[in-house]
Amino acid sequence: MDKIFTENPQKQFEFDAKVAGVFDDMVSRSIPYYKEVLGLCADFTLMYLKPDSTLLDLGTSTGAMLVEIASKAEFPLNLYGIDNAESMLEIAQNKLSAYEMCANLICGDILEVDFPKSDVVIANYTLQFIRPLQREKLVQKIYDCLNPKGVFIVSEKVMVEHKELDFKMIQYYLANKKKQGYSDFEIAKKREALENVLVPYSEAENRAMFLNAGFSCVETLFRWVNFASFIVMKG
């Protein structure tokens, strides 16, 4: 169970072995409707895949998205997952092996690793950790690796441009975290550790970034307060 921020961390947040060990519990309690979003993303992903299609999961962490897709697929797929935390990928491999599923897991920086030509790319709560100056380059890289009529499915924490409403949404979200069992101390310490590490864009900023990369269509697939999922189409 996630107890990382019951102590007083002296560093910025990072996806180290300590976080990897509690990651599944952390995200399920920190991201509203996390499991439902995974299911939704998997269902829409499979609508755009056929036998032997290639799917790329960026920031795959402990492999939850890959397992969700592989468990629902009724035909063979070429699954790839990239993450820069080896400890996360070890857990992902153990999960896949337990379910007798196969995927190509790559440990590396998604800004540097070559992407396979893909039919669908997924990035759930990943872009928000990429520095703004590098984020547009990454989205362009995703666009370039997609086959014609390829699909990009992305989930992100989002900010609201109306400052007062943004504040109210954040407070509502923090209250939701308390309902999940986090203390005020844990919530405050995690926010402090994530300062300048997680940098959210607004829904409009995300939409503009996708369109500027060349994508032809951006639709909101799911939204809860300050979290959103988008389905982005390559024309």
Automatic annotation (TrEMBL):
* The keyword Metal-binding is assigned to this record: no
Q: Which UniProt keywords are given for this protein, alphabetically ordered? A: S-adenosyl-L-methionine, Transferase
**For S-adenosyl-L-methionine, which residues are the binding ones?**
Y34, G59, T60, S61, D83, N84, D109, I110, N124, R191
From what superkingdom does this record's organism come? Bacteria
InterPro entries in the cross-refs: CmoA, Methyltransf_25, SAM-dependent_MTases_sf
Boundaries of every Methyltransferase domain copy: 56-150
Query: What protein name is recorded for this chain?
Result: Carboxy-S-adenosyl-L-methionine synthase
What is this organism's lineage? Bacteria, Pseudomonadati, Campylobacterota, Epsilonproteobacteria, Campylobacterales
GN (gene name):
cmoA
